[in-house]
Amino acid sequence: MQFPLNQTESRRFRWLLADFDDKIRRATKQMQVHALPDAMKKSAWRAIIEVGFIIFLFYSNLLMGEFERSGLGLKRGLFWVMMDVFTLANFGIAVVAALLGYLVFEFLRKRF
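^ that's the sequence the OP posted. Answer follows.
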């Protein structure tokens, strides 16, 4: 391979390098643009699943509490327990607790 010796060949070589560099930048930007929505979809699904699981744990804890010795679930029955546990106030508490729990765990994941 022979390196450019005169000024014309040197300019041409620089132009080829600049053109190649520009093509690499464009390809990299296109890959990043197409990869971003997939990553966002995965993180959104992950957040939904984790928040849903925390809500599930909240409600299962409430249901177990109703059937303990001190709870009225054994005396009044399953229908009463469902009406007592699945209320709008409990759902609001569950959602707020789940979102806070998700944020805390994400912070700890990124921190450690």
